Amino acid sequence: MQEQIKNTNTLEELQALYTATFGKNGTMTAKLKNMKNLDNDARAELNRENTVLRELFKSRQAEIENSVMMAALASQRMDATLAPLPENRGTLHPLTQALSDVSVILESFGYEMWTGPEVEDDWHNFTALNTPEYHPARDMQDTFFLENGNVMRTQTSAIQIRSMDARGAPIKMFGIGATYRKEMDATHSPMFHQIEGLYIDTNITMSDLIADVHEFLKRFFNMDNIELRVRPSYFPFTEPSIEIDMKWRGNKWMEIMGAGMVHPNVLRNCNIDPEQYQGFAFGFGWDRLAMLKYGLNDIRQFYDGDIRWLRATGF
Ligand code: DAH
After folding, report:
1. How far does residue 58's CA lie from ligand 1's centre (Å)?
2. Which one of 95, 173, 235, 312 has the lowest number of neighbouring Cβ atoms within 10 Å?
3. Which residue's CA is minimally distant from atom 7 of ligand 1?
4. Ligand 1 site: residues with CB under 6 angstroms?
5. pLDDT tens profile 282-305
């Protein structure tokens, strides 16, 4: 009997043997029922056998349970030295990153960030910017007109007007936002973004403009030796007007932004006295600047929803 118990390998086998021994019809149960017919010695012997067998069953059960657990542990071994699974981490879209860089720099120069509506009225987008109806300069921008006479903002210059209307002079601000024009190719998207700077005070000159733009570009591109070229140009809201080019990678001149001294008519339209105040404005494509910084040649890549833009590289 003791050998039989030791030879069981599973809990089921052990249970079957236990039932055959101590169950209702078990061999030991029958013997114990007969106890009263035995003499003292035989009774003592039977009691001893009963105790021994019960102990044996218990210890065999513990042994089998233990080996079942050890087998389970062995099959589920964990290697604590394995590298963790890579997790998906996000990062800022390059346009968002570029905007963040631009804002940090301009704010450090004392410019305050402004936004404005993307659906603009004619006054803020054109007329107040010295571009009244039938002014030929309206053709410089292929405008989306809405049925009620409003337009999809073609330029963040509209935000200058809103900031001067609200604040008056002096003012030092930059406006950011989406702008819209009917054009689409590798360097133009119907929706793009502009950033516009404006600084109006009592003693502001073109040199202040060029110094700020120069310092801004140095910091944005993280380059000490940025070379600029200033060309005369035309914008209705500035007089004189200039375009600023930057020497890119040591040889090619790239047009970076339009700028100029704010036209007296624009100041008057915002109830600012041009005899007392003057200042400069500049405007540039935020997407274009980001394309240069990140080495892209097709603006549409920013807008094609490629999830890789948002994935952090490396681990
Ligand atoms: N609004 C102009 C454009 O969209 C850019 C610009 C030029 C803005 C000269 C200015 C400026 O503030 O002074 O082409």
Report:
1. 91
2. 312
3. 258
4. 155, 157, 196, 235, 238, 258-260, 281-283
5. 999 999 999 999 888 888 888 888
Distance 157 CA to ligand 1 centre (A): 6
Confidence band of 172 (pLDDT split at 50, 70, 90)? very high
Concatenated DSSP letters of 257-294: EEEEEEPHHHHHHTT--TTT-EEEEEEEEHHHHHHHHH
How is residue 188 written in tokens? 């133009």
Ligand 1 centroid to Cα of residue 258, in Å, is: 5
Res 199 pLDDT > 50: yes
> What burial letters (b/e) apply to 184-196, b meaning 16+ CB within 10 Å?
eeeebbeebbbbb
Which residue's CA lies nearest to atom 3 of ligand 1? 155
Q: Which of 255, 261, 263 lies closest to 292, judged by CA? A: 255
What distances in angstroms separate CA 233 from CA 131, 135, 237, 257, 260, one per listed residue? 16, 17, 12, 11, 9
For the 95-310 domain, the top CATH level (class) is alpha beta
SS3 readout for 174-235: EEEEEEECCCCECCECCEEEEEEEEEEECCCCHHHHHHHHHHHHHHHHCCCCCCEEEEEEEE
pTM: 0.73
In the chain, the largest separation of any two C-alpha atoms, in whole Å, equals: 133
Atom of ligand 1 nearest to the CA of 179: 4
Nearest CA to ligand 1 atom 12: 282
Domain boundaries, the chain: 2-75, 95-310
